[in-house]
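Hi F.,

I've been meaning to write this up properly since the lab meeting, where we talked about keeping a consistent format for the predictions we share between groups. The idea is simple: the sequence comes first, exactly as it goes in, then the structure tokens exactly as they come out, then a line or two of notes. No screenshots and no reformatting. I'm using this chain as the first example so we have something concrete to point to.
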Amino acid sequence: MSLTTISREPRGSQENSSATCYFLSETAERRALGAILKKPALLDTTFALLTVDDFGDDRRRRCFRAACELRDEGEPVDPQTIASRAATNGDVARLEAWLTDLRDGAVAAGITQKTVAELKQVTKKRKVAALTDKAAKRSRAGDDPDEIAAELDSGISELRYNPTEETAPSQRPDMPDLCLDGRLGEIYQRRLKTFPLAYAWITLLVVAGVMLERLGAGLRTNLFGATVGPTDSGKTASMEHTCRVLGMFDDPRLLRDAKFGSGEGLAEALANVEPNAVRLLAPDELAHLTAKMAIDRSSLAAILNTAYDRDVQQGGSRGRPFTIDTRLSVMGGLVEDQFGDNFGAATIGGFYDRFIFGLCPQPSQYLYRPFEGRAEVMNPFHMPINADVWDARDHWVRSEGIKPRVATHALRVAYICGAFDGRSELRAADLGPALEFARYQMRARTMLAPNPGENPDAKCAVSILSWLQQHAANGEWVSRRTLHKGIHAERVGPLVFNRTLKQLAFNSEIALNAGEKKIRLVKAC
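Output, unedited:
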């Protein structure tokens, strides 16, 4: 590490405080800024956690700030654009020439997290020096020593935050193999292993449930399923391949890519179905469905909520009455970053609770392959349910903390798997995979919470608190920029984001550091 107390920059860059000048990693700062000029994409990867405070020299600090602003505005990041924004006293040409030399001598490929760590360490030293300088000045001024100590302790506690933890790639396990059950589990292992288990198992269960007839059912077999993950992670392809494996791709029971603008439109589509009909509503992207449910006075949410538990329902207006007599399942995908907004205020009255979720593991990469092979030959049939199954369900709820609705999902899953296995009876001894599935669903729900906000400020507040509870639940400090990116605050705009942060801090739900550049969750909330 190269430390110096005097900057070697052109005159005009010496505007730092005395504490700042004590610690200056000139080599690392020059390497970082040169690499950014050479490859601006590093701002969002290697240097994603760097802030203006990590540059001890004023000129390089101004250049880094300008580079970040240009990146955020979608403008080119180069010596000319940075110089035009960062130069003082009209010295644009001189600064541009200096930046050009810095870029031409940089080697972006040689920049690693070690450079970031070096800058962060020197930043901490500068901040410690500034804190002790301030404490000494207050002490000489005769301030209360307890107040000085409290301020010093608060500042030091902030510095204990380790930003390198945020640079670690997100790690999230897949659904455990213990959830797999019987013939359907074997089909996944043999035909669908190119997909995350969380995706393929959810779609297998939902589609398989549609293949069971309504008559003679010991337990309802319709399910509402959602695969949740980033774009291009295989959500649509897993549904397509599953339908082909089970021979359901062209089956009339599958309402593939079906998108209805209202509950009445759905009722009309189901008006002339066969007796004891079973249908799978598969709109591909569930966002369309939830958006229509959010329309004022929409009946879609009520119709679908009822459909989970009952096959026959009536409604409509005086001039357009309707009757639905169909066992309805629902299956689709959701982009994880938009989950809270998709399951918003219009859907928290029960629709969210009726779903089983498959959460994409991280890291994960899906590479498309065309479907090969023939459909499996399947002959599922209904079976009776032993009374000990209900005792086992009660034990899950009372002893395991499984929510009753999740326990219901798990029993339906166990029944579907048993039907495809040809079991003579569903017993408590068969419920091991179902219990693992219920446990997984409970874990998934801690990461996939609906956003009940009804205006931009409320939605932003819920998103902030949910993100902090998931990523920094123990009160760790996180940078404002990381939080902004994590909740995609650009969708609500800077005014709403900033206003919401201040309001949450006023309510003591979060804490902001002195410069309002870092945020942490207040544990009491």
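Notes:
Confidence is low (pLDDT under 50) at residues 1-22, 163-169.
The longest strand covers residues 321-335.

If this format works for you, I'll send the rest the same way.

G.
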